[in-house]
Amino acid sequence: MAKSMLVKTSRVFRFAFQNFWRNFWLSMVTVTIITLAFLSVNFFILTQALLDTSLQAIEKKVNLSIYFKQSVQESDAQQLIAKLQAAGEKPDLTYVSRDAALATLKARYEREGNTAISDSLRILEVNPLTTSLVIKAKKIEDYAALQKLLDEDPYKDWIERKSFDDRKLLIKRIDSLKGNLKQVGVFIMIFFAIVASLIVYNTIRMTIYARQKEVAVMKLVGATNWFIRGPLIIESALYSVLAIAFAIAILYPLLGFMQPYVDRFFEGQAFDILAYFSENFSSIFGYQLLASIVLNVISSSLAIGRYLKV
Amino acid sequence: MIRLENISKLYYPDVSALKDVDAHVASGEFVFLVGQSGSGKTTLVRLLTAEERPTTGRIEIGGWDITRIPRRHIPTLRRQIGVVYQDFKLLEKKSVFENVAFALEVCGESGGTIKKTVPQLLKIVGLEEKMDRYPRQLSGGEQQRVAIARALIHRPKLLIADEPTGDLDSITAKGIVDLLLKIHTLGTTILFVTHNRDIVNILKKRVITVHNGSLVSDREKGKYFI
Q1: Measured between CB atoms, does A115 come within 8 Å of chain B?
Q2: Å between B218 CA and nearest CA of chain A
Q3: Rounded average pLDDT over B91-120
Q4: Per residue in B25-67, pLDDT tens?
Q5: Residue contact B49–A220, C-beta within 8 A
Q6: Is the predicted pLDDT of residue A164 greater than 70, yes or no?
Q7: Which of B48, B93, B97, B109 to mutate to test the interface with A (most CBs of A within 10 A)?
Q8: How many alpha carbons fall within 13 Å on the CB side of residue B54?
Q9: How many independent structural domains does chain B possess?
Q10: Contacting residues for A241 by C-beta, under 8 A, at least 6 apart
Q11: Where are the domains of chain A?
């Protein structure tokens, strides 16, 4: 019994490979369509990754600089720093004391051989620069809360000026763009999954439709449904495996070709798209392969059902 | 071998393909089932191969009541009766050897048995030299011989030939009839469905005639009279 099962199973696999080979052109058409579906999905993934990287690049450039009034003591500044660090996700804070700011300024002008600043300072006899604090939030959304905190008493009276207002609009736009992209992305992803599923389902259906006579003959010579269904299901899984292999073989050279253009677009903000796909290889292609196999198996099972009623 | 009791087959909404057909074919008989196109011959064959179920009545094959045969038992039934069709029903993508072997492979027969049995049968039907060819590379008569070899692979007690000479010229058709007669002499019951008047009249075997879905005549050494 077990031996007979083993023999039948091995035949199911043999027939699957034999069917694939002997219906070569039909198989290749199916594989090509599934490959195109895979390529489209991967280009969508690439677009998402590029958009994410663009947003990260813009976000990195956003910071909030505050300049304290001359009267503010260092201890007050430290109090504000402690308060900021306790607020939500710890922002990166760069504290620049008056002396440090002066030293930096002096060094810069002296390097250029300009003595005007040193001379002016000698005349003034006091350090005219103020203490400043550069705040870099972990997330773009955090700036709103940070700004609210800075507007509270007593901090608002310590601050001479902030550069935050200048970026308020940009931050707001990035924030809403990101939200919109996420929503649109989910919608496109669902839409895409449905379209890809329908294409694959129809392709498999057409493949089986072209072989309905063969299925009927198999039934008439005493083949069980399992014996007919098995090779077709394995064959459809084979379509997925080959299609993902073709998609990878096409995608990687294309990514290599696109890399210089991506580099140019991001201007120094390194985003290695090849590395991105390689690092996420198993999750990107593994899930696609799994989804495709499941879809193909369901499609072929549904498509073949009607022809098994002989 | 075959027992039909009061068989009727109605197709929706009110097409009556068979009406109250009663017949009995004994083991080892050679019987012609004749009638004009649309008389119900093919419907009867489809009932015998469980492609259809009768609306009323009872069908028995080799003592097995197949009237309401469960779907899971249909493959077993089909492995016990050989069927040859007018359009051969060969698998186009399989070679002659593979077409015949397929009927054994579906029931888990070992590779050794298949390699031994298939060439023997192909020799009987005169195709041992062409077992690597594909159906499209064979003549109509040769394709029908492959179909006969496949039908015989399980050594069935009953062989149903549904218009086996319908698509063949008279000389090739005679070759197929001779082959079926040879198989009959080996003890197989043959139900030969045809509307070929010449074959029926020459062989002088039992003839069952159906007309408009009813059995109108059943004669030993009969003739085609419609």
Answers
A1: no
A2: 28
A3: 90
A4: 999 999 999 998 889 999 999 999 999 999 999 999 988 899 9
A5: yes
A6: no
A7: B93
A8: 25
A9: 1
A10: A289, A293
A11: 2-59+174-308, 63-164
| Domain CATH code at residue B78 | 3.40.50.300
Q: Is residue B97 part of a domain?
A: yes
pLDDT of residue A119: 79
Q: What is the DSSP letter of B132?
A: T
**Does B196 fall in a domain?**
yes
Between chains, do B102 and A310 touch, taking CB under 8 Å as contact?
no
ipTM: 0.79
Residue A234: strand, helix, or coil = helix
**pLDDT score of A168:** 59
For the entire predicted model, the pTM comes to 0.68
Statement: residue B3 has pLDDT above 70: yes
- What is the assigned CATH class of domain A63-164? alpha beta
Spatial separation of the C-alpha atoms in residues A231 and A208, rounded to whole Å: 12
Cα–Cα distance, A59 to A32 (Å, whole number): 40
Facing A220 at nearest CB: one of B83, B92, B93: B83
Q: Are strands B56-61 and B2-11 parallel, antiparallel or unpaired?
A: antiparallel
Residues A19, A42: Cα–Cα separation, whole Å = 29
* Gap from A207 CA to chain B (nearest CA, Å): 14
Is A116 in CB contact (< 8 Å) with chain B?
no
Asked if the structure places residue B225 within a domain, the reply is no
Burial tier of A300 (Cβ tally within 10 Å: 0-12, 13-18, 19+): buried
Contact status of A95 with chain B (Cβ, < 8 Å): no
In this complex, which of A19, A216, A221 lies closest to B102 when CB atoms are compared?
A221
In-domain check, residue B208: yes
Backbone φ and ψ of B188, nearest 5°: -85, 135
Nearest CA to CA, how far is B76 from chain A (Å)? 7
Q: Give the separation between CA A197 and CA A200, rounded to whole angstroms.
A: 5
Taking an 8 Å cut-off on Cβ atoms, the answer to whether B93 and A5 are in contact is no
For an interface test with A, the pick among B72, B91, B153 (most A C-beta atoms closer than 10 Å) comes out as B91
- Dump strand ranges (E) for B40-199: 56-61, 64-65, 81-85, 158-162, 189-194
Q: Which residues pair with B175 in a beta bridge?
A: none
**Which of B73, B80, B86, B89 is the best substitution to test chain A (most A C-beta atoms within 10 A)?**
B89
Q: Residue B194 belongs to what domain range?
A: 2-219
Contacts of B79 in chain A (CB under 8 A): 221-222
Of A86, A49, A23, the C-alpha closest to A238 is A23
What's the average model confidence in pLDDT over A108-128?
Answer: 77
